[in-house]
Amino acid sequence: MVNTLTRIGFLATLLYWQGAVLAAPPTDRVEELIQDLAAEKGYPTQTLRELLQGASRSQLVIDSLNRPAETIHTWKTYRPIFLKQNRIEEGVAYWEKHRETLERAQAIYGVPPEIIVAIIGVETFYGKRPGTISILDALYTQAYHYPKRYQFGRSQLKAFLQILMEERMEPAMAVGSYAGAMGTPQFIPTSYLSYAVDFDGDGKRDIWGNDADVIGSVANYFSKHNWREGEAVALPVRAVEPGHPYYVEPAQRATPPDKPLADLAQAGIVTGPTPVTTDAKATLLHLQGAEGAEFWLGLDNFYVITRYNHSNLYAMAVYQLSQEILALKNGSAS
Fold first, then answer.
1. What is the pLDDT of residues 181-199, one digit of tens each?
2. Which residues carry out catalysis (predicted)?
3. Which pTM does this prediction carry?
4. 3-state secondary structure of 215
5. Domains defined along the chain, listed by start
6. Does 123 participate in catalysis according to the annotation?
7. Is the separation of the CB atoms in 154 and 32 below 8 Å?
8. Residues 276-311: pLDDT tens digits?
9. Which candidate, 234, 226, 219, places its Cα nearest to that of 116?
10. 224, 304 in Cβ contact below 8 A?
11. What span, in angstroms and rounded, lies between the C-alpha atoms of 193 and 275?
12. Which of 90, 114, 123, 294 is catalytic?
């Protein structure tokens, strides 16, 4: 009985403490963040305090983070979300509108237009659905009112303050997702600092309203993650039956290519010529498609796509959308 009462008392204390953290202004921890950033970058502490004055706890962000996990998709259910005809047609229109910028990005970074366009199409439907939540509120809430996201929220809030200082932005200008992904390409703040570029030379890295900066930033992201210019992304291969030494179960999370193509060819999985060298490596992918099991080889460039989002399904959606956009564009041009 005493142990039971002790446990109840402990749980009550824990719940009270968590409620207090959510309700009380975390002024000490905010000030600690301000002092850290001021010491690292030399920013005036008063300016940082003023930027954070408008930050508020967002119940919408908390509710979104508390929602049950999304449906666990298979390729059968995931593919139709992104491979819709209107997304393909809008992709061609976006390409045609920004043709010169996309060609310049390819010349500088080596990333083909169809891949850049497909990323933008999957992330925000070509900038039309970037999210409407204040990034300041989203990150402030995660850092100081949602303990499970404290480390992520604090690091991203710190990076976001650096963006505001460097870009001379007002916090209200930055909107995005409840998780803190920003603008058309959905960069989190640390990704923005590492990969966003001023691609039109206007002195700003604007991933909210400047398509040139969006295109250049996405291309730079892929380049910095070792995109291999001119190389294939993925290859369909023959079915691999259970019991085969190379058989794999469907996997959501991406892994680096680790199987030599020569070994896969010797095992009879790869037949005929391939557009990559025999010393290349690949990941064998098993997808549950609408017509049954599909097997693919994910090459180095496929893995690069998964550095944007670590899901194999995401990377395959980007790749197949890119190919549909390319095919429609080439067909409409002929």
1. 999 999 999 999 999 999 9
2. 123
3. 0.89
4. helix
5. 23-67+130-224 (1.10.8.350), 234-298 (no CATH)
6. yes
7. no
8. 776 789 999 999 999 999 999 999 999 999 999 999
9. 219
10. no
11. 35
12. 123
